[in-house]
Write a structure and sequence with these properties.
Layout: E1 7-14, E2 17-19, E3 25-29, E4 37-40, H1 44-60, H2 62-73, H3 80-88, H4 94-106, E5 109-112, H5 119-124, E6 125-127, E7 136-137, E8 142-148, E9 151-154, E10 170-176, E11 182-187, E12 198-199, H6 215-226, E13 230-231, E14 249-255, H7 268-276, E15 284-290, H8 292-311, H9 316-320, E16 323-325, E17 328-335, E18 340-352, H10 360-363, E19 371-372, E20 379-380, H11 390-395, E21 399-402, E22 419-423, H12 425-432, H13 437-458, H14 465-478, H15 488-505, H16 524-539, H17 541-550, E23 552-554, H18 565-573, H19 578-581, H20 583-592, H21 601-629, H22 654-678, H23 681-699, H24 705-731, H25 747-756, H26 761-771, E24 793-797
Parallel strand pairs: 1-4, 7-18, 8-18, 9-10, 12-14
Antiparallel strand pairs: 1-2, 1-24, 3-4, 5-8, 6-23, 10-11, 11-22, 13-16, 14-15, 16-17, 17-18, 18-21, 19-20, 21-22
Helix pairs in contact: 1-2, 1-23, 2-17, 2-22, 13-14, 13-16, 13-17, 15-16, 16-17, 18-22, 20-21, 22-23, 22-24, 23-24
């Protein structure tokens, strides 16, 4: 997971036991970057309530329990908070800045990377199906907006004249199109350079009407044709870098009123005579537009393959195999070192100021949800409004126009070649850097499901990754706070339910321009297919998620340990037989009847160790006998075993429950160990806390008392190691703590002093918070509470509990 949450919890430590931090939100503090600080307190009753919730899901809704823990244990980032905070304070990624230095020297262009926060995902995760001869590739295609600096958008005609050495050399002004989300670029008249432009001709072939073709065929033909990527038609003619070819411009006759030819001092008779002499041609005016279709053809067939592609760092093989649709070029670069295909989307664009007229609803959106702090009365929204709010910052950013006109499902848009689509790459990067880790993980899992089940069928014709991004912006605005890391599976199922509703109604508003429906010109059959996939996932989520997540591989062995999806699926699909599921459990149950109960705890533990050793001998004999009759397949592939249609029971038998609990306990312990090295100590404590919750449930199963005791010892040992590392890191910092803590004092010493009343709780809490910031909680033991004095330590939790 690689992140620390902005919540804090308190822990209680009693003599002989340590209470696990539990969740209870008591306040919310707003800040300008869209994150919130949560202050939580813990007590014994709340810990038990949380455990009871987990037990209820495990016993009554096992698929939800399994999904919550799978998603909690799957990692995409080493340290998400570190990445997001870095991106919040920079206007461009280092790679983007370095690339622009080259492009501005060689080409009259610059680039924008909107998916900077996805870069680390591509470094840590690779996607590979189980199909034969399949190759590994990045989960997310990298988008690169290439901005042409030859075209400048101005607000009015009164502009200074540019000389031949100045840039840009084409000045245009924005003209509204009929459809929201699209604009036209019209040449500025004053001091305009001479441009050769073709006459505007409505050279389209109307498609057969409803009398000869059914609606489904009618609406699919042109859209499917336009959205099918085609190879580039490379033109080797050398073009000047300081000009655009005439195919990029279109001359059109438009109606006008020649009032400008009159002098304001002319009398009425002169004016009447002037109007009587006017002809039809006087009411027409020749104007020049930048042709989006011609611009895209020039970019994809001339500029990109001959020079720009190499300047962006692509190989000749990648450029030669590139394909394009209106507004995008698709290509893949093979990385020899990692043996991974890296997909890219190259998007030509023209920079424009933030389109206030088109985004007025976004800026002043009335239905934007507001969270009210019940303690302080403060209100909060995402994105934040007001002076220096997130919306105000985005309005100061630029947008871009992409050479892609509006395409109708029925009929032809006569002005499609003159229209440009509005995109907001910088605003998207800004918003994604301010999403929480749980929200970003939810987006990445949606992208994984899309890449596994939808994209192979619909390609560019149906639901696209940019639709999922837009959908997630709406979900974050709807409820920015309620995204608990430990219950992300429950939240994600609700998100998917909302998404399939959007697909059913065929409506997905553009987040910045609500009047634009992104699903409007997508054929229904592709939306229906995506809806069916998500409905199937909602009906039987665990197999679908296991199959999709099994296609994600960690790129490095130094990353977090992966979830053992193979073992988990084998447990779920196996019949309720102890010997078939896990032979060692069968012997545990047999020996359980021979256990004795001793009043002396030492004698009881000694007896349990004896039984464990005896069980181990029996297990080894049974396994040795089983191997003689088994012919295991070393080339096991999950694709041959996973059937997404196999239902998962809501209630599991005892043996399956025990096995699944052990799988997740072991996994969370391993993630906790790795987190203390890769991320933060708070993150490590978060996973140890979840492991101890599950271990408490395991302990309540009478046959697993000894195993639960062993796991508890491991967790306690790791927590102690983390505390020592935390103290050393604080003691080695440049700024000494305001209230020093003597190295000779241990937590046991503090307990003894608490018993005698020689330490005041408030002073100890202040000393601990000032001296050991972000220190981890004490050892965890969910036994009976002891009515003794407790020490409350302020800590940072890792999830919204």
């Amino acid at each position: 997971m690689g992140t620390t949450c902005s919540k804090k919890y308190n822990s209680e430590k009693n003599s002989g036991e340590i209470i696990l931090p539990g969740p209870k939100m008591v306040s919310v503090t707003d800040n300008s970057d869209g994150n919130s600080d949560f202050i939580t307190e813990s007590n014994y009753k709340e810990d038990l309530m949380h455990i009871q919730t987990i037990k209820y899901e495990l016993n009554k809704h096992a698929p939800v329990f399994i999904l919550n823990n799978i998603l909690m244990g799957f990692q995409f980032y080493t340290d998400f908070d570190k990445v997001s905070k870095r991106l919040q304070h920079i206007s461009a990624s280092p790679q983007e800045t370095e690339m622009n230095k080259t492009l501005l020297k060689v080409e009259t262009m610059e680039c924008t990377y909107p998916d900077a926060i996805m870069d680390e995902v591509n470094q840590n995760i690779i996607f590979r199906t189980m199909q034969e001869f399949s190759s590994a590739e990045n989960l997310v295609a990298k988008r690169i907006y290439v901005i042409n600096d030859l075209i400048e958008v101005v607000k009015c005609d009164e502009i200074p004249q540019y000389t031949s050495i100045d840039k840009p050399c084409y000045q245009v002004k924005i003209q509204e199109a009929k459809r929201k989300g699209f604009l036209k670029l019209k040449q500025v008249e004053n001091n305009a350079p001479i441009i050769k432009a073709k006459e505007y001709v409505e050279n389209y072939e109307p498609l057969p009407g409803p009398s000869t073709r059914c609606d489904s065929e009618y609406e699919y033909s042109m859209i499917t044709e336009m959205r099918t990527p085609k190879p580039l038609e490379i033109v080797n003619e050398v073009e000047r870098r300081d000009t655009l070819p005439e195919t990029c411009f279109t001359q059109k006759n438009e109606k006008c009123f020649p009032i400008e030819s009159l002098d304001s001092e002319d009398d009425e008779e002169v004016r009447q005579e002037f109007f009587r002499n006017l002809t039809d041609e006087d009411f027409m005016k020749k104007v020049i537009y930048v042709n989006s279709h011609g611009f895209m053809k020039y970019f994809q067939n001339g500029l990109f393959p001959t020079s720009l592609g190499k300047s962006l760092g692509f190989s000749e093989d990648a450029i030669a195999t590139a394909k394009a649709i209106p507004g995008k070029i698709f290509l893949q670069e093979f990385d020899i070192e990692s043996n991974v295909n890296k997909p890219f989307q190259i998007i030509p664009a023209v920079t424009i100021p933030w389109p206030d007229e088109q985004t007025i609803e976004f800026v002043y959106r009335d239905e934007r949800n507001t969270i009210i702090n019940t303690r302080t009365g403060a209100t909060y929204q995402w994105p934040t409004t007001g002076h220096n709010g997130m919306i105000e910052e985005m309005r100061n950013m630029t947008a871009v126009l992409v050479p892609k006109g509006y395409t109708k499902k029925k009929g032809v848009n006569k002005d499609a070649y003159l229209e440009w689509e509005i995109n907001f790459p910088k605003a998207e990067r800004y918003l994604e850097a301010r999403m929480s880790h749980a929200q970003m993980k939810c987006l990445l899992i949606l992208l994984t499901l899309h890449k596994t089940y939808i994209d192979p069928v619909t390609k560019q014709n149906g639901l696209l990754p940019e639709h999922l991004r837009t959908f997630m912006y709406w979900q974050c605005e709807k409820d920015f706070r309620n995204w608990p890391e430990h219950r992300l599976g429950t939240k994600l199922l609700r998100v998917i339910k909302d998404l399939q509703q959007n697909l059913f109604f065929g409506v997905l508003p553009n987040y910045f321009i609500k009047e634009q429906n992104l699903f409007e010109n997508i054929p229904k059959k592709y939306l229906n297919y995506a809806q069916k996939v998500f409905l199937d996932i909602l009906g039987n989520p665990v197999p679908y998620f296991i199959k999709a997540l099994s296609y994600l591989r960690y790129a490095s062995g130094k990353f977090y340990p992966p979830v053992n999806l193979k073992e988990l699926y084998e447990v779920l699909r196996t019949k309720s037989s102890p010997a078939l599921l896990n032979p060692q459990l069968a012997y545990s149950i047999v020996t359980q009847r021979k256990r004795r109960i001793y009043k002396n705890p030492e004698s009881q533990i000694k007896h349990l160790k004896y039984l464990k050793k005896k069980e181990q001998i029996l297990r080894e004999r049974h396994l040795q006998k089983s191997k003689q009759n088994e012919n295991e397949d070393n080339d096991y592939q999950m694709k041959n075993d996973i059937n997404v249609n196999d239902p998962i029971d809501n209630e599991l038998d005892t043996i399956k429950t025990i096995t699944i609990l052990e799988i997740f306990i072991k996994h969370f312990i391993e993630i906790g160990k790795k987190s203390s090295n890769l991320a933060t100590y708070d993150q490590a404590m978060f996973y140890f806390k979840q492991a101890m919750y599950l271990n408490k449930i395991l302990e309540e199963t009478s046959s697993m008392i000894l195993e639960a005791h062993d796991y508890q010892q491991i967790i306690a040992k790791e927590e102690s190691r983390i505390r020592r590392k935390t103290i050393r890191s604080v003691s080695s910092s440049e700024e000494p703590p305001p209230t020093p803590i003597r190295k000779s004092i241990t937590f046991n010493d503090i307990n003894q002093q608490l018993k005698s009343g020689s330490i005041r709780l408030k002073n100890l809490e202040n000393s601990f918070n000032n001296g050991i910031q972000n220190a981890s909680a004490q050892k965890i033991n969910l036994g009976k509470p002891v009515r003794k004095k407790t020490v409350v330590f302020a800590e940072s939790d890792h999830s919204q509990m």
